[in-house]
Design a protein that fits this description.
By secondary structure, this protein is of the alpha/beta class. It is built from five helices and nine strands, in the order ββααβαββββαβαβ. Helix 2 packs across helix 3. The radius of gyration is 15 Å and the shape is globular. 34% of the residues are buried.
């Protein structure tokens, strides 16, 4: 299945000059959505992974069903002040400012291998912040999985040395 058939291009959103890759058609199709989760699961079947971490919000949409399919715990990586205490957080740069992601301090055990999942790899800033968060409590980032990768934004450069899976590249 060609997942690009289930991703809609929306020009000039959220601002002029941006080509937004809309995944809502993929979620609308149970066949395409299931294929996406199955494709990710096949890539990591039998791997030594202790948990799946999803980056808010769209990383949750793929991370939760993937964790269930792999029979692993799910760790939500959330925006600031969305989780009850105690949390640990990492600040990071966005294209137009700064942000922060947090996770529960007891979400994983030291040495746990974690698969980080998000919908899209662009500049890599959010994914790298997720890795720092996991590694900051003694976890290991086993790999990072994305549905879409925007190659022109060079996110892989920031994530050098990390195992990265992208199902669709533009």
């Amino acid at each position: 299945m060609d997942l690009k058939n289930w991703i809609r291009d929306i020009p000039d959103y959220p601002q002029p000059g941006i080509l937004f890759r809309d995944l809502t058609p993929l979620w609308k199709s149970p066949e395409a959505f299931n294929y996406t989760i199955d494709s990710m699961a096949e890539s990591y079947s039998g791997a030594t992974i202790d948990a799946v971490a999803g980056i808010e919000t769209r990383g949750f949409m793929f991370g939760v069903p993937l964790a269930l399919k792999l029979e692993l715990p799910f760790i939500p990586l959330r925006k600031e002040k969305k989780l009850p205490p105690e949390v640990i957080g990492v600040d990071f740069e966005l294209e137009y400012g700064t942000s922060r992601i947090e996770m529960k301090i007891d979400a994983l055990d030291r040495g746990d291998n974690v698969l980080v999942v998000d919908d899209l790899l662009a500049t890599g800033g959010t994914a790298e912040a997720a890795a720092k968060l996991i590694e900051g409590v003694g976890g290991q980032v086993f790999a990072m999985a994305f549905v879409v990768e925007l190659e022109a934004l060079n996110g892989r450069d920031l994530l050098k040395g990390r195992d990265i899976l992208s199902l669709v590249t533009y």
